[in-house]
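A note on notation is needed here, since sequence and fold are reported together in a single record. The reader may check this reading against the record printed directly beneath this paragraph.
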Amino acid sequence: MIKKGAILAVVLALLTALAACGGKSAEPSSSSSSGKEETKKKIIVGTDAAFAPFEYMDKGEIVGFDVDLLDAVMKEAGIDYELKNIGWDPLFAALQSKEIDMAISGITINDKRKQTYDFSIPYFESTHMIMVKQNSPIKNALDLKGKTIGVQNATTGQEAVEKLLGKGNKNIKKFENTVVAIMELLNGGVDAVVTDNAVASEYVKNNPNKKIKVIPDSKHFESEFYGMMFPKGSDLKPKIDKALKKLMENGKYAEIYKKWFGTEPNVDNLLKQQ
């Protein structure tokens, strides 16, 4: 028979040992948690908020299709982020110098850009349209020859017009953004503006009193695809791709698309581009 005093001694010894073990395990756990908080990084996303309906300023806030999609993607990926409006040309420089971590701004994926940047899987299919005044004689892209055309500088819209009229053509007027190019059209400074179909259609829908019409020309303007852009080798790309694909498959992408464009997106075609 074991004496009560011996039992008490054993129990006290076990309690002391357990307390010691608890103290040792708790200390590294606290340190590890603190380390994670210190190293957690907020992702900085750059944009040019002058490209409605993709991103634009409304009462001091950046809003648009890209903005809603970005938010849904980041929530799906569990990433903390901040969206900054830094302008079109600075966007590319800031990404290359890694002042920002990624960019979203209706950016077309093309071979030239892929030499310098990485892109997400495509999230939007686009083509170019011609914007002209309602009484304009221009009926298609070939009619742009001999006319003065407004484009946003360093965009694929500029490249599309240069293919038709020749690079360095003096009749191609480059502007800081599409909004300024459209203002020049309204003021008679250019005969037409070439920009993305969604942007052109959105402007005409929202400004019926401006008497501007849009002209599609699928024969001379090929489809393009937008992607979110990263510095080369970014470890964000696979996380964003996974989240974006999930939203396309679970219906969230279509929900955001219909909110901004009023129609169903061709998700299958987007998924085929991956």
DSSP finds ten helices and 15 strands in the chain. The radius of gyration is 27 Å. The mean pLDDT is 88.
